[in-house]
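Title: Comparing notes on inverse folding

I've been comparing how different people in this forum approach sequence design from structure. To keep things fair, I'm posting one structure and asking everyone to reply with a full sequence. Here's the target:
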């Protein structure tokens, strides 16, 4: 007589990684849901979105069995190993801290938190659980160019740094009759303003130095303010990198700019300058004579956020893009800019 035993998992197969989604809007649907489903052994176990209807829609679209009506239930569930947070910044700190306290790994959408206090809570919660992966979704625009940009600066090809300029102009909020974006309302976005934190995060990668804010001037049209907006539609900031011999920082951001969009980062030194053009998808180096050398052009999408998150959990790979300590740095800068803001 023979007896049967339950089928065992092949030795090479990874243990299932069961993920709950709290917030499943545009970026989670475009990136995190497909990115995590593509990883071997990852199970999309539950979803809790802003409404029961949207939760059910996401569950049906992605083959998720369970819909939760309260994010606390999703975070506390014993059959969940990791939580992907895709809500607006106003709830990031509460959800991330609860998830880490419950022993869950965390992948949290940027921006890190609504304010500096929330970011500090998140960083402390992550530090208290070094056995768990706590990862922020990185600023995506320059991922394919970061290594080349950082190398050009580190190896002294620009000479002594003098100034860093960031320009991001587009017309997403130009039409005042369009629905009011949550990004213009501090009750949802907190101190985060336009793409300020996003591109400051990029500068942290390239320069490995922090800046202080000298002044910040915002523009908010009366028609937009009358609809409940209290964050700027355009922002001009001046700052200084004290540890880089006082190199200046200028950031010119506008979501109400008519005409051709612009997306550039220029790092100027006394021996040349580095130019990243996000519209043309190229990175170039100009020497003091004006001669230009292309370092990288039309790179493919370098996004691997979900793969990195899973590797961190399964292999102990350190979080590079982006850990909570780095998030805390960009939140300090953003909070300082919000405090200095004048309209």
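Reply #1:
Here's my take.
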């Amino acid at each position: 007589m023979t007896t049967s035993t339950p089928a065992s998992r092949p030795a090479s197969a990874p243990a299932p990684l069961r993920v709950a989604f709290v917030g499943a809007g545009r970026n989670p649907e475009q990136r995190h849901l497909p990115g995590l489903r593509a990883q071997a052994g990852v199970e999309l176990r539950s979803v809790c979105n802003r409404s029961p209807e949207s939760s059910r829609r996401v569950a049906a679209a992605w083959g998720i069995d369970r819909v939760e009506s309260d994010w606390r239930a999703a975070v506390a569930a014993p059959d969940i190993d990791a939580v992907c947070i895709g809500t607006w910044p106003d709830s990031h700190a509460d959800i991330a801290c609860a998830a880490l306290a419950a022993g869950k790994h965390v992948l949290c959408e940027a921006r890190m938190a609504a304010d500096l206090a929330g970011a500090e809570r998140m960083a402390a919660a992550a530090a208290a659980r070094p056995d768990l992966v706590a990862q922020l979704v990185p600023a995506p625009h320059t991922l394919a160019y970061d290594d080349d940009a950082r190398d050009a600066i580190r190896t002294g090809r620009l000479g002594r740094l003098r100034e860093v300029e960031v320009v991001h102009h587009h017309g997403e909020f130009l039409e005042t009759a369009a629905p009011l974006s949550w990004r213009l309302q501090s009750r949802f976005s907190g101190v985060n303003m336009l793409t300020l934190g996003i591109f400051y995060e990029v500068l942290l990668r390239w320069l490995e130095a922090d800046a202080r804010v000298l002044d910040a001037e915002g523009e908010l049209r009366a028609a937009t303010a009358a609809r409940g907006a209290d964050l700027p539609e355009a922002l001009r900031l001046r700052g200084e990198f004290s540890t880089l011999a006082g190199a200046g920082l200028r950031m010119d951001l506008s979501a109400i700019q008519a005409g051709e969009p612009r997306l550039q980062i220029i790092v100027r030194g006394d021996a040349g300058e580095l130019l990243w053009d996000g519209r043309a998808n190229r990175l170039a180096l100009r020497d003091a004579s004006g001669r230009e050398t292309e370092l990288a052009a039309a790179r493919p999408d370098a996004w691997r956020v979900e793969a990195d998150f899973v590797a961190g959990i399964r292999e102990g790979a350190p979080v590079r893009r982006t850990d909570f300590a780095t998030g805390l740095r960009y939140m300090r800068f953003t909070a300082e800019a919000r405090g200095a803001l004048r309209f």
